[in-house]
C-alpha cells in the first residue's frame, strides 16, 4: 500500500511538472533548453557533487551504483522544490525575474542483500522565456519600426527505475533506465509599426517520447581503519530520440489579411549526447567527506535544427553542424557531520558546501555561449520526534553566474529545499 501511495504521488508530480517552467532564461531558447541538476537535496547543497558518494540514508541519483548502499531497514522518500531570483544585465539595462518549481520526487529501498532499488521523477531540461526587441527599419530616413518577439515554453522530464548491486565487497554497479518525455514550443513573431508591411512569424516545435539509459560504478578502497576513498564512474548512452522537430513559417499580408503558411520537419532530428563522469570522494571517519567530480557531454557532432537561407532566397530547415560543442563541468565540495551516531541534536546536523564551473554546449552567432560559475552552501537538519529520528530537511542556497562576451549576463540566487523521509518499513518487531 505504501509503495502504491508513493507511485501515486510521483504520478501527481509528473503531471504538475509538465505545467511548470523552472527558468526565465533567454538561453533556454537554444538546444533542448537549460540543463537541469539531476541531484537530490543533499547533492544540490554541494552544487551537484555526488558521483563518488554512497550514502546509506540518501538516494543519490547521480550514480546509480550508490543504491547498493541504502540501509536495509529503510524506505527513503525524497522530494524537493526550489525558488529563485535572477538578475539579467545587457547594455546597462537590468531586469529581475523570479519563479518557483517542484524539482524532483524519488524513492529508494534495499530489495535484497547488497541490492538496492530506486525510482522517481527527475527534470532533464527547462524552457521558459519571453522577451522582445524593437528597432528602426531604416536608421536614417524611415520612421517605421519593427519588433521581434521571442517566447518559448516546455522542457523534458524523466521517470526512471534504477538498481545498484554490490557483487564484491567495495565494488558496486548500477543503472537507471528512464522514460524521457516532453516538448518545446518556441516562436519568433515579427511585426511592424507600418500596417502595410507583411509580417513573418516562425514557430518551432518538437515532442519527445523515448528512453534514457545511465550506468554507474563505484569502488571503495580502505586506506586506514577509519578512512576510505571511493572512485565513481558514470556513462550515459547517447542516441536519437525519434522526434521530428518542426518549423512552421507564416507570412501575413496585413493589408489584405491573407496568410501563407509553410511547414517543414526534420525526421529523427533530435539526439541525446553521450555522457561520461568520474568522481572521487574521500571519507574521513564518516565525519568529513571531500569530493571532486568531472563530467563530459559529447554534443559535438550532433546536428542542430536550424532555419537557413538558401542561395535562391528560399528558407530551409535542416540539421546544421558546428553549433553544438562538448560541455565540461567540474565540481568540488564537502560535507561534515559531527557524529551520525551521537546522542545530541547538533551531532546529526550536516554542513555542506560546493562550487562548480561549466562550459557551454552551444554557440550563438558563431561565438561560444555563456560559461557557468556556481557556489552553494547548506544544511542537512535532522527531523527528530517520537517516531522518527532518521529523516532530514535539506536546505541550501545556490548562486549561479552565466556570462559571455557580448551576451546577456545572468546572476541567479536559488533556495533549494528537500525533504528526505527515512522510515523503518522493513524492520521486524519481536514481542516477548
Describe this structure as you would to a colleague:
The protein has 432 residues and is mainly beta. It is 5% helix and 58% strand. It is built from 2 helices and 21 strands. It has helices at residues 2-17, 41-44, and strands at residues 34-35, 75-90, 93-112, 115-136, 145-168, 171-192, 199-222, 227-236, 246-252, 259-265, 274-284, 288-298, 304-309, 315-320, 327-336, 350-358, 363-364, 367-368, 371-383, 391-403, 409-423. The strands form 3 sheets. Strands 2-3-4-5-6-7-8-11-12-15-16-19-20-21 form a 14-stranded antiparallel β-barrel. A hairpin with a 4-residue loop joins strand 7 and strand 8. The longest helix has 16 residues, at 2-17. The chain is elongated and about 80 Å long. The two termini are 28 Å apart. The model has no long low-confidence stretch (mean pLDDT 87).
Largest sheet: 14 strands, antiparallel, barrel
Backbone CA Rg: 24 Å
Query: What structural class should be given to the helix and strand makeup?
Result: mainly beta
Query: Strand tally, please?
Result: 21
List keywords for this structure.
mainly beta; 432 residues; 14-stranded antiparallel beta barrel; single chain; elongated; 21 strands; two-stranded antiparallel sheet
Q: What's the SSE blueprint?
A:
Elements (H helix, E strand, L loop, with lengths): L1 H16 L16 E2 L5 H4 L30 E16 L2 E20 L2 E22 L8 E24 L2 E22 L6 E24 L4 E10 L9 E7 L6 E7 L8 E11 L3 E11 L5 E6 L5 E6 L6 E10 L13 E9 L4 E2 L2 E2 L2 E13 L7 E13 L5 E15 L9
Antiparallel strand pairs: 1-4, 2-3, 2-21, 3-4, 4-5, 5-6, 6-7, 7-8, 7-9, 8-11, 9-10, 11-12, 12-15, 13-14, 15-16, 16-19, 17-18, 19-20, 20-21
Amino acid at each position: 500500500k505504501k509503495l502504491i501511495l508513493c507511485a501515486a504521488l510521483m504520478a501527481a508530480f509528473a503531471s504538475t511538472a509538465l505545467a511548470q517552467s523552472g527558468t526565465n532564461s533567454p538561453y533556454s531558447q537554444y538546444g533542448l533548453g537549460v540543463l537541469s541538476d539531476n541531484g537530490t537535496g543533499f547533492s544540490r547543497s554541494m552544487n551537484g557533487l555526488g558521483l563518488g558518494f554512497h550514502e546509506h540514508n540518501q538516494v543519490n541519483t547521480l550514480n546509480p551504483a550508490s543504491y547498493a548502499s541504502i540501509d536495509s531497514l529503510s524506505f527513503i522518500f525524497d522530494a524537493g522544490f526550489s525558488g529563485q531570483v535572477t538578475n539579467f544585465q545587457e547594455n546597462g539595462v537590468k531586469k529581475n525575474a523570479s519563479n518557483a518549481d517542484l524539482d524532483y520526487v524519488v524513492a529508494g529501498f534495499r530489495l535484497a542483500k547488497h541490492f538496492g532499488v530506486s525510482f522517481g521523477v527527475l527534470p532533464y531540461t527547462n524552457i521558459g522565456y519571453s522577451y522582445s526587441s524593437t528597432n528602426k527599419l531604416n536608421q536614417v530616413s524611415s520612421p517605421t519600426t519593427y519588433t521581434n518577439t521571442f517566447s518559448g515554453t516546455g522542457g523534458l522530464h524523466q521517470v526512471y527505475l534504477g538498481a545498484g548491486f554490490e557483487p564484491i565487497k567495495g565494488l558496486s554497479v548500477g543503472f537507471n533506465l528512464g522514460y524521457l518525455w516532453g516538448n518545446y514550443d518556441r516562436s519568433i513573431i515579427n511585426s511592424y509599426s507600418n500596417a502595410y508591411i507583411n509580417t513573418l512569424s516562425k514557430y518551432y516545435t518538437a515532442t519527445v517520447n523515448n528512453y534514457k539509459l545511465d550506468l554507474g560504478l563505484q569502488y571503495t578502497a580502505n586506506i586506514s581503519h577509519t578512512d576510505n576513498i571511493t572512485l565513481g564512474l558514470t556513462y550515459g548512452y547517447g542516441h536519437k530520440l525519434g522526434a521530428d522537430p518542426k518549423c512552421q513559417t507564416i507570412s501575413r499580408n496585413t493589408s489584405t489579411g491573407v496568410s501563407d503558411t509553410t511547414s517543414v520537419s526534420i525526421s529523427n532530428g533530435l539526439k541525446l549526447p553521450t555522457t561520461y563522469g568520474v568522481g572521487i570522494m574521500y571519507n574521513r571517519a564518516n565525519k568529513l567527506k571531500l569530493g571532486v567530480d568531472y563530467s563530459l557531454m559529447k554534443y559535438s557532432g550532433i546536428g542542430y535544427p536550424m532555419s537557413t537561407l538558401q542561395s535562391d532566397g528560399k528558407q530551409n530547415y535542416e540539421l546544421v553542424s558546428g553549433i553544438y560543442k562538448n560541455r565540461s563541468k567540474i565540481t568540488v565540495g564537502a560535507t561534515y557531520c559531527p557524529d551520525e551516531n551521537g546522542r545530541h541534536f547538533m551531532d546529526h546536523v550536516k554542513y555542506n558546501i560546493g562550487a562548480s564551473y561549466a562550459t557551454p554546449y552551444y554557440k550563438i552567432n558563431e561565438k561560444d555561449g555563456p560559461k557557468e560559475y556556481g557556489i552553494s552552501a547548506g544544511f542537512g537538519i535532522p527531523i527528530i520526534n517520537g517516531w522518527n529520528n532518521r529523516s532530514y530537511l535539506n536546505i541550501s542556497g545556490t548562486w549561479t553566474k552565466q556570462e559571455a562576451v557580448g551576451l546577456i549576463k545572468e546572476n541567479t540566487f536559488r533556495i533549494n529545499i528537500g525533504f528526505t523521509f527515512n522510515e523503518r518499513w522493513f524492520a521486524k518487531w519481536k514481542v516477548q
